[in-house]
Amino acid sequence: MSTWKVACLIAVKDLRVERRSKIVTNQVLPFAGITMVSFAFALDKQNVLDTVAPGLIWLATTFSLLILVQRSFSIETDDGALDAMRVAGIDARAIFLGKAMALAVQLLVLEILLLFAAVVFYGESIQSSGAQGPVLAVVLLVTTLVSATCGLAAVGTLYGGLAAGFKGSETLLPLLTLPAVAPVLIGATKAVESAVGTAGAVVSEGWQWVGLLAVFAVAFGIGGALAFGPLIDE
Amino acid sequence: MEDAGFILGSYFLTFATVGLFAWRTLRSGRKLADQIPDDDKYWL
Amino acid sequence: MTTIDPARTELQPSEPPPQRRSTGTRATRLVGIGCITAMGWLVAFGLGFSPADRDQKESVRILYVHVPTIWLAYLAFVVTAVSSGLYLLTKKQSLGWDRVAGASAEIGVAFVAVTLAVGSLWGRLTWGVFWQWDARLTTTALLFVTYIGYLAVRRLGGSHQQRAKRSAVLGMIAVIEIPLVHFSVKMWRSLHQEATVANLDGDTKMDGIMLFSLFVGVIAFTFLYVWLMLHRTRAMAMEDMLEDRGLDDALIARRAEAANQQNGAH
């Protein structure tokens, strides 16, 4: 079987486990929601929420990423499934890609819900000025979501695999992940600001940030796939 | 000297770190060296 | 007045323990003397002989320790990256490279911390604020946190080869990560440049004695780096030996126990 096929099987397996356990829907999504509400308490000033909403969406996503990664690897290490897969001769790159894909799907769902939360709670709206109306802004938003998610999922899977199964991995994961995803936090926030027109940002400014996000996703996708084998082989 | 507190403070901070790091390195080296026979010390 | 504790004298072994030699050698002593001499020069030139700057006034003196510390930190991180690569790429997978990488990262983290602290003092005098969100500062702060994470991963446990492989891979990932972080932060800052604070750079035109003071500082801290690396890698080698010995002892004890049990059963 090709690496991609195995990766897809692993991704489907992960998503099935998550669907059955309902941890994501019953715990991670509510956590992200309460984070958004908490931001409103902390930033209780006229018009502040409207201005900082794009950043808050990605902050909430990053925090939820940490929980999702923790979860994604605890289902593997609890009964030694990661080692079992390696013993069964499954390519480490396939494990990396599969887990990253499953993580990306979950993140994407989460981000869309967070965007809706921002519309409802913080009064955001898609930029509809310009000749094409909101079409370009929506395209920018979708490409931003996809490219940022790929980068986040790659970094999360890489460091999740590194810390998995060790004492103190819960505290190590944020320490490793947060500085690494700083470019995503910056780029995705700026791109969403362009899409929703925060502080007069225009849609055309957003594309350079999508470029950064894409470079990031590719770099960590390839780097992670190559590094994952040596990291989990012990 | 103008702003002497800041300037002397930064010199003190730098050299205190240098001293502390050097002292800790030497001390840990001595402690460990007591437990290892000289034959195993590749630098001798 | 000293009193002799009889219990203590009884416990003393009849022969003094063999004199064990520590991590110092003639080479480290020479480097150490060079380092202390250069540090003395640095203080003399930095605080005494060099004049105050036209723009920065006396606060320029901070740069004579600030620039050498960040030079030392960058040097340390480059060595960490290179020796991580050498560990992974050479066939022997020598733990020596791993220890060089680890010792170097420890030194780098300590001196980035000093750089950030001293730099904020300089910033307060020159810019009027302790911290400014510019590309260089932000990247340095993230670099600091990244290598704290690297050191935490080194302490995760497992065998020495596991530690070495894991941290070497992480050391290589940092090589992708740091340029990306720097590039993105630069892009971020270039879009809304805040012109509220004077943008004075440390490395604009300097006169001869200032440049010389800076040069003395860089020499002094390079000596310091070499000295620390020699001592620290030796200490780390001994740590590894002790852990191996502890493991061997445990194995021997376990075998003896098993043998005893078998004898008892017969």
What does this structure look like?
The complex is a heterotrimer of chains A (234), B (44) and C (266). Chain A has 9 helices and no strands. The longest helix of chain A has 31 residues. The two termini of chain A are 24 Å apart. Chain B is mainly α and 44 residues long. Chain C has one domain. The longest helix of chain C has 58 residues. The chains are: A mainly alpha (234), B mainly alpha (44), C mainly alpha (266). At the B-C interface, helix 1 of B face helix 2, helix 3, helix 4 and helix 7 of C.
Provide a concise account of the structure shown.
The complex is a heterotrimer of chains A (234), B (44) and C (266). Chain B has one helix at residues 4-33.
Question: Keywords for this structure?
Answer:
heterotrimer, A: 234 residues, mainly alpha, 9 helices, C: 266 residues, globular
Oligomer: heterotrimer
* Helical proportion of chain A, percent range: over 70%
Mean pLDDT of chain B: 88
Secondary-structure element pattern of chain B, one letter each: H
Note the overall shape of chain B: rod-shaped
Distance linking N and C termini of chain A? 24 Å
Q: Strand fraction band of chain B? A: under 5%
- DSSP strand count of chain B: 0
Largest sheet of chain A: none
Number of E strands of chain A: 0
Largest interface: B-C, 34 and 44 residues
Identify low-pLDDT runs of chain B.
none
How many distinct helices of chain A? 9
Radius of gyration of chain B: 18 Å
- Radius of gyration of chain A, in angstroms, nearest whole number: 18 Å
Structural class by secondary-structure content of chain A: mainly alpha
> Could you give the order of the helices and strands of chain A?
HHHHHHHHH
Mean pLDDT across every amino acid position of chain A: 86
